[in-house]
Amino acid sequence: MPSFVMYLVHTLFPHDVLRPTELGADVMIIATGVIIFYVLTKQKKWLYLWREWLTTVDHKKIGIMYLIAALAMLFRGGVDALMLRTNLALPSTPVIDALEYNQVFTTHGTIMIFFMAMPFIFALFNVAVPLMIGARDVAFPRINAMSFWLFAFGALLLNISFVIGGSPDAGWTAYPPYTGPMFNPGPGENYFFLSLLIAGIGTTMTGINFLVTVLRMRAPGMTLMKMPMFIWSALTTSALIIFAFPPLTVALAMSLFDRIFGSSFFTLGHGGLAMMYVNLFWLFGHPEVYIVVLPVFGIFSEVVATFSQKALFGYSVMVISIVSIMVLAYGTWVHHFFTMGAGPGVNAFFGLSTMLIAIPTGVKIFNWIFTMWGGRIQMTVAMLYQMAFIPTFVIGGATGILLATVPADYQLHNTYFLIAHFHNVLIGGTLFGLLSGLYYWWPKMFGHKLDERQGKWAFWLFFWGFWITFGPQYLLGLKGMTRRIYTYPAGFGWHTLNVISTLGAFVMGAAFVILVYNIIYSLQHGEKDLTGDPWNGRTLEWAIPSPAPEYNFARIPVVHERDAWWDMKQKGQTLAAMRPEDMRTLELPKNTPIPFLLGFAFFVVGFGMTFEWWYIVALGAIGVVATLIYSGFDYDEHKHIAAEEVLEIEAGLGRVQG
Amino acid sequence: MPKRRHRWPYRLVPLALFVGLLVSGCGQQYVLLHPKGPVGTTELHLLTLSSLAMVVIIIPVFILFGIAVWRFRDKPGNKAPYRPDWHGHKGLEILWWVIPAVVLTVIAIPTVKQTYALSKLPATTKNPVVIDVTSLTWKWLFQYPGHHVATVNYVEIPAGQPVLFELTADSAMNTFWVPQLGGMEYTMPNSVLPLWLEANKPGVYWGRSGQYSGLKFEKMTFNVKAVSPQAFNRWLIKTGNTAPPMTLAKYHALLKFNTVGVATYGSYPANTFPSVTKGFTLQGGMYTTMHDQKNLIYVPMSGMAKTQGNP
Lengths: 658, 311
Known about the structure:
The structure holds two protein chains of two kinds.
Chain A: H1 2-12, H2 20-42, H3 46-54, H4 59-88, H5 98-132, H6 141-160, H7 188-216, H8 229-260, H9 274-308, H10 315-328, H11 344-372, H12 381-404, H13 406-412, H14 416-446, H15 452-478, H16 495-525, H17 564-570, E1 586-589, H18 594-610, H19 614-632, E2 638-641, H20 643-652
Antiparallel strand pairs in A: 1-2
Helix pairs in contact in A: 4-5, 4-6, 4-16, 5-6, 5-7, 5-9, 5-14, 6-7, 6-18, 7-8, 7-18, 8-9, 8-10, 9-11, 9-14, 10-11, 11-12, 12-14, 12-15, 14-15, 15-16, 18-19
Chain B: H1 8-11, H2 13-23, H3 38-71, H4 90-118, E1 129-136, E2 139-144, E3 149-152, E4 154-158, E5 163-169, E6 174-178, E7 182-187, E8 193-197, E9 203-208, E10 221-227, H5 229-242, H6 248-254, E11 263-265, H7 302-308
Parallel strand pairs in B: 1-5, 4-10
Antiparallel strand pairs in B: 1-2, 2-3, 3-11, 5-8, 6-7, 9-10
């Protein structure tokens, strides 16, 4: 028995999770846990938490939970980034050792892509898509909740690796054969593969859910070509997800088989072909780039039209370009490994396809500029992010073209030039866009605005912090600095630029702190949104109160024009002046604990498999199957809100005539 | 809008700093901008061409954007026309499909041409020096199949003529990169990839791996010593005659997960590099998988990993 306990302790707490950083994190996690437990118990909120949040199927609440998770992960990924930058600030003076550095850059990338950007996007999808198309919920509310909990427990699984068992250390791309058991024993990479597999199931279901929602749930009169651009971006993103995640799932599962079951798909021996993994990974990975950037194109299209107080310029061209980006996104993946010797024919093809995809992207830039042209631009925080996005993303796109120039890529591949490029598009594009969307839709989520003055501080620090961090990294690339080195000797002329870059990272860190302060401050003091339309908006979500009632629309609106709400306002119409006789009894999805339990069961499977404890895996698997079977026979899926109750709520919001 | 003090020049300080750094990019330490061989030069030319083409796009876009933001800001008394319903202009929209297409074509044609050109040795090359490169776990092994000598963590090449590197790995993936001579290529197990480079002049050029391969990855560095062809031949003969042989035991020692210093060997055991006669083509176009694994001396490292892998 004691030997079993020793085994357990050694497995769960090997020495690399007993470093000061990890122990510090342990203390913080336990302290936070105790505080949360105390507050919830003191306030008697446990039942509230369970009833209103953990079991909810309401897309708005799921959106808020996604948002909280995304911001928490932005914090974690950001702290990782600061550790990386601190290590690189000066030559030959690492603060953390190589193993920890390797783990930290791995979790930084994995978390920022899979557990920050993706849930942030799903947060905004959940909050805005049903409201913008005039729907009461998404097509499959229960599956929507399952998606969230699978994501949440996947994220939890990856995050506990930091303090239990050891983090993965093979980079977010996890190239074999380094991920094989020969080079990488221990649970770290198991955590990586399993958490992404579990979260990936959720993501795939989200893709299906929103594809069906957009195609089937639109308000009467809203034809495809009358949809807001954000809805187009949700549609194309969903399509990308559905076809991009299967290759990732296959690649992850095969890697996991190599590790746990001794197969040799990608290993060093027995003829394993590592390049096959690389192909499969980027077959997912490149569409993924567009999965995280197309929604942002949608957000910017809404934001620029709203705050220029003018119709979006070239709507049909925007649709054509977003659809062509979606299609071309599948045909560019080899540009991530031109230097893997696929031959000049293949390389030339993918170089050209990469340049080709720049054309529709460039077209969008022009259209946004011309949306502003002839408008009246209001410099709100959301709009500032939009305006920072244009020049930043143009430069990021241009450096992308340099990387698509195949022979030049042979020099730039895996250097800091590449690092600067993809942060340029992922921060300048995705993050700026998500923050813009956050400021834009915040009133709709919470019923008050975020403080604009603080928001502007955070914005300017983010913007300049970004350029101070990544501008020098382009130059470091030209000086031959390669990625993923934990320290470097003096003599290459890299250190001045690295010092500047590290300073920039801390500026962005300060921006994040202000952002969090802004959120907390505004919860108390934010300007209340009493009209439901704080920005003089154009689309349907602004036609209803903020925050939206549970059923969204007491009466589903009829759409006649593209910017439906703008059009109604021009014609002097409103959704507010409802008459009692308009009220109908509404059918809504009913809360259920199944998604939460399913996510937990998957977590148990993942945790057990990470350590290859098969009894625990079996236990979790039984849980998964049992929940699904129970769910299949659970016909009590709906609840009703009586017409009188709807009337009462609407009257309380001052939206009933007479 | 509340009155705003004119603070904006301060916001431009980082920009000025960045431009300053960019201008300072003429130093020799910007190795990518100072190639010492024809491959690197070709790659730099394409980089320059596409940079210029991008500048041609970026500048008008920035100007247009600046004007739009300035002219149409929401200030009382702004006299610029307000056209809330202006939502399209066919001519303009066609124009900005065409402009990027034209600019990209200018880049695309030489890109394709040079992609093909660089995949082959120059037509004038006869009997190039061939060097077999194997990335091991945190060290580089170089073998000269023509002369049967080997080096570790440095490589000697003749200047002024193309050298053909054949790349493989008995380790996790790495990339073989000598930035002053030209671009990188992956070293991968179970495959052999060709890469040719040439140094214009004798000199020492640093090389490193660009693909993360584990704990001591940053130690995956080596120097390329380019000497005159005569000196190179003398070196080959001298090394063959005087340097110690690499025994099988020494080769196996190299397979351990550790770092070592530089070393030179007068011979090396047979079959320590995958056969390059099969499936190997400079034209590329196929994954050059080895088929004769039986001849390759393969030491299963799964046992060693427990003690010498990642702690």
